[in-house]
Amino acid sequence: MLNPDVISVTDKYINKKINRRSFLLATGVFAGSVTFGSLLAYYYKNSRESHPFNKSQDKILQDVQEQLFPKSNDAPGASDINSLNYLHFVLTDPDIDEDNKNLLISGVDWLEEECQTTFNKSFSNLLSKEKDKVFRIIEKSNWGYRWLSLNLIYIFEALLSDPIYGGNPDEIGWRWLEHVPGFPRPNADNMYGKL
Known about the structure:
Elements: H1 4-14, H2 20-46, H3 55-68, H4 83-91, H5 98-119, H6 128-138, H7 142-160, H8 172-177
């Protein structure tokens, strides 16, 4: 059932009994709400939180990325393509899928728990073959498989993204793959998150 005040205003409008003052007030409220809503949406879209990892978690993630995408004589590694910095960019995007974000964040702690259980050491202190063994253990779980997959996806995005987004510094990934980027390329005014 409608509120009697709403019915009264509606009846006045339908019966053309609305006065100029009521019309201007209603129009002003409507215009203000649209403008305020737009500004609120713009602020939300353009405000990025700081990334969610502490220094220890950053170190673990960097080691995970290096293990998943190691440097070789003719290829850049995860640190060369700035994959951790790119991951920070992604995780501070207000439009990121919250489930993926939560998995990436929680996965660091779950990985550490598995390392402590299996080797009684932090991931960062494991030998390369021990790190691979932990990956083999966690990939058998749903969270572990998804977590490793997401990390690989964001490593490849860092490798192939425009450098303006924090990965692929000096176009190192593009040069390695002999890739020519499309045009026009993003700049500070039209990059993702600013449109």
